[in-house]
Design a protein that fits this description.
Strand content: 15-25%
CATH architecture of the largest domain: Alpha-Beta Complex
Helix content: 40-55%
Number of domains: 2
Number of strands: 12
CATH superfamily of the largest domain: Spore Coat Polysaccharide Biosynthesis Protein SpsA, Chain A
Number of helices: 11
Order of helices and strands: EHEHEHEEHEEEHHEEEHEHHHH
CATH class of the largest domain: Alpha Beta
Structural class: alpha/beta
Mean pLDDT: 91
Distance between the termini: 38 Å
Radius of gyration: 20 Å
Largest sheet: 10 strands, mixed
Shape: globular
């Protein structure tokens, strides 16, 4: 039975129990009514003792242990299926609430009769802004520079606004309005699942909101940053999947050729910079990542190079 007075907190965990515990503590400390939350943690096949720790430290939480890393989308859908209330929050482990963002986000969703999804203002630990609202991906900009359209998006930071898409470390959802849209597409293992969701939401005549009054600190992909090659491979794989779904195979062929050519130039440029600078670490790291991506394309985009191809529990990702 739905309980509109309770909010579901859906955390996705992978070997980060300490971060989940800290995030839960920050949300409860910021909330006017900490007892209103139904906490759900979906463990994505952690190789450490995350499940034991979470069940011990969060006895009131519903900790779901998946046998393997099922990917972000499937883990989220598993958690959302267990939410009893109308509103839910999809949360990464590496976040910290600066204010009562849950109340502010739900209020924004409730005030807008067409809003189904909302995100807060995202801050880095130093207080600087991190991109939360983003434009819908377009083939031209993916080939040229995908960050440029963000500069022309014209997002206000002093009022709630409807936006094309958002990024996903903290998303508030109205499950009742999402019934017509469906949950995340589980074909996206990691990256672009929320972008696809936003596109489908808008196609149903619903809105995606950016609510800057709600503030959340995000450590921005600490787990992925420890595995830069696999993270970038997974990003490229999901990007091709997104364009195949929404633009067709010809668009993917053009994107593939253009990105492979750009990677070739990147490898060459940064190799020269390594020689000029005497082997600076920054350029050496970039050469390693670009060269791996270049080879991954050349070998036919093998899935085992990314997170998706290394699902088994206990395997280093």
């Amino acid at each position: 039975m739905s309980d509109p007075g309770r909010y579901g907190l859906v955390f996705i965990n992978w070997n980060s129990a300490d971060l989940v515990l800290a995030a839960v503590a920050s949300i409860r400390a910021a909330a006017a009514d900490p007892g209103q939350f139904q906490t759900i943690v979906v463990d994505n096949g952690s190789a450490d003792d995350s499940v034991v720790v979470l069940r011990r430290e969060l006895p009131d939480a519903d900790v779901v242990a998946l046998p393997e890393n099922a990917g972000f989308a499937r883990a989220v859908n598993t958690g959302l299926a267990r939410v009893r209330g109308r509103y839910a929050f999809i949360l990464n482990a590496d976040i910290e609430f600066r204010n009562d963002a849950t109340a502010l986000l739900v209020a924004a969703l409730a005030a807008d009769g067409k809003a189904a999804l909302a995100c807060p203002k995202l801050l880095r630990p130093d207080g600087s802004l991190q991109a939360a609202a983003v434009p819908e991906p377009r083939l031209f900009w993916e080939l040229v520079n995908r960050s440029l359209p963000r500069r022309f998006l014209g997002i206000r930071h002093d009022a709630t606004v409807a936006v094309p898409a958002i990024v996903g470390p903290c998303m508030a959802v109205d499950l009742q309005r999402l019934a017509a849209v469906g949950l995340l597409d589980e074909r996206f293992f990691f990256f672009f699942e929320e972008t696809d969701w936003c596109r489908r939401i808008r196609a149903q005549g619903l809105r995606v909101l950016y609510v800057p009054a709600a503030e959340v600190v995000h450590l921005q992909g600490e787990s992925a940053n420890r595995r830069p090659v696999r993270a970038r491979v997974q990003f490229y794989s999901s990007r091709y999947r997104y364009f195949r779904k929404h633009a067709g195979i010809p668009a993917v062929v053009v994107l593939f050729a253009g990105l492979w050519l750009r990677l070739s130039l990147d490898v060459l440029l940064h190799s020269v910079l390594v020689l000029v600078t005497g082997g600076g670490r920054r350029h050496r790291d970039r050469v390693a990542v670009y060269a791996a991506l270049w080879l991954w394309h050349l070998l036919g985009c093998r899935p085992q190079w990314g997170f998706e191809g290394r699902r088994r529990k206990g395997r280093d990702q």
